[in-house]
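Please, why this fold?
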Amino acid sequence: MKRKVGLWIDHRKALIVSITEGLEEIKSIPSDVEKRVRFSGEAQKNLEEDIRERRFMNQLNIYYNKVISLIQDAETIFIVGPGEAKIELKKHLEKKKQIGQVIEIGTADKMTENQFAAKVREYFSK
């Protein structure tokens, strides 16, 4: 059974479109990651910023691991998104990469579920 996955991701949510033997499944995963807050000025604020940045990175790691758990059995993974999350996730996937798994990156702005599902179908029909 060959599973192909299209993944739209940013730091707020992930949209997974799985195609297995012609059947399509769509899942949306919220990140629950707190928004980054930047400070300027004093040493105390710098310490608070460091703590918040570490918490942000820990939350992102939990989010990425959750997404990976849902797509790790895919033969091919097509990842798109508007920002740096797609590159960060690719790095996490490559650390856990299984033999024969293909990971490809593309760029896409915000899309509806239907628009993204159509993009994934088009990508895998090539």
Observations:
- The longest strand covers residues 13-20.
- The CA atoms of residues 65 and 118 lie 26 Å apart.
- The radius of gyration is 16 Å.
